[in-house]
Amino acid sequence: MSLGLETVLRRNPNAAYRIYDGQATIVLPDRSEVNVLNELGSLVWERIDGARTLGQIVDSVVQEYEVNAGEARQDIMEFVGALHEHGMVS
Q1: How far apart are CA 67 and CA 71, in angstroms?
Q2: What is the average pLDDT score of the chain?
Q3: Residues 40-61: tens digit of each pLDDT
Q4: Is 60 exposed, middle or buried, given 0-12, 13-18 or 19+ CB atoms closer than 10 A?
């Protein structure tokens, strides 16, 4: 799957997660994995809802954190690529 700004992702339905103090802890029982995301990663994780495009998620992060749009786009695309490789999103 090629990820672009128009891509709409869904969280793995088998993933269980909780957010404590701004950090998401995600458990993937199928892969026996536990992942802990930082505050920004947790924000992106929450916004992956099967309805928003990656472009919309990037835009919301840029507005909320007032960061450089190009850097945010690159960082978020790399991050969601890693989530995809780990089977956390599709």
Answers
A1: 8
A2: 94
A3: 999 999 999 999 999 999 999 9
A4: middle
Kindly give, in sequence order, each residue whose CB lies less than 8 Å from that of residue 59, ignoring residues fewer than 6 positions away.
none
- In this structure, is the dihedral angle defined by the CA atoms of residues 35, 79, 56 and 39, taken in order, positive or negative? positive
71's tokens: 């850097």
pLDDT, one tens digit per residue, over 19-31 is 999 999 999 988 8
Provide the pLDDT for residue 30: 87
Element (H, E) at 36: strand 33-36
Tokens for 1, please give them. 């799957």
For residue 27, the surrounding DSSP H or E stretch is: strand 23-28
Q: For residue 16, what is the enclosing H or E element?
A: strand 16-20
> Which tokens in the block code for residue 53?
């495009």
